[in-house]
Amino acid sequence: MPGPHVALSGRGLRHTYGKEEALAGVDIDVHVGEVVALMGPSGSGKSTLLHLLAGLLRPTNGEVWLGKSRLDTASESVRASIRLRRMGFVFQFGDLVPELTLAENVELPLRLTGCSRVRARHTAGRLLEALGIAAVADRRVNEVSGGQAQRAAVARALVHSPEIVFADEPTGSLDTVAGEQVMEALVGAARETGAAVVLVTHELSVAAFADRDLQIRDGRIPRAATIPAADS
Ligand SMILES: Nc1ncnc2c1ncn2[C@@H]1O[C@H](COP(=O)(O)OP(=O)(O)OP(=O)(O)O)[C@@H](O)[C@H]1O
Question: In the chain, where do the E strands start and end?
Fold first, then answer.
């Protein structure tokens, strides 16, 4: 089990799709509150690693721990509950529910975990304000800009104070200015709540927001690129 300062840990992660080996043995520790960028060429294994760490895929070999919870051996229902309560997600194309307003989208994780409507509205409202999108909170996704929608996706990922947020190319569909606003929102809100962030990006300007970047090559992270946990 990882030490107390490690939010998320992957040990000896190997993953194959049929005969194809996408990850060839990766060790990774993400510390509490740390922002880590996964970088590397197309096909190097970034998305596979993100999906293993988030419990969306089971590794062929290896272990994944979120704090004291082991994910790779947990049942699908336990992993789904952990994702809902203890993780947040931001995808390239926001993935907001188009029928709901931005505010209703942000309230969703709280409502799904039993929070009252009034409390969810209040908590989501504070975050929408902090991320500069309170003025468009009652609009639907197709009535706001891509950057505003993506900031709402960031708010939805953080509203329930998760331990970790996974972001797969969160700025991939945006221009540079909107992308920077989204990264400022993501890293700023994560610092506020103490969440760690693991993000996949191809862009150096996005990786510059991270505390550390890890380069993946052919399904491996060169050993020197990982910093061992202080207490492990
Ligand atoms: N569902 C799948 N079935 C079969 N092979 C897959 C599948 N998903 C990924 N792969 C293969 O596994 C390897 C790693 O893919 P992965 O998507 O993790 O890389 P990536 O670094 O995220 O790439 P990109 O930057 O293009 O998104 C690639 O060779 C890819 O073709």
Answer: 6-17, 20-31, 35-39, 61-66, 69-70, 87-90, 164-168, 196-200, 212-215
Return the residue whose CA atom lies nearest to atom 7 of ligand 1: 17
Beta carbon of 48 within 6 Å of any ligand 1 atom: yes
Is residue 220, in this structure, part of any structural domain at all? no
Whole-model pTM? 0.92
CA of 46 to the centre of ligand 1 (A): 8
Q: Is residue 221 part of a domain?
A: no
Which atom in ligand 1 lies closest to the alpha carbon of residue 200?
22
Residue 228 located in a structural domain? no
Q: Which residue is associated with the tokens 């919870």?
A: 69
pLDDT in tens, 50-83: 999 999 999 999 999 999 999 999 999 999 999 9
Number of domains in the chain: 1
Inside any domain, residue 91: yes
Ligand 1 mean position, distance from CA 130 (Å): 36
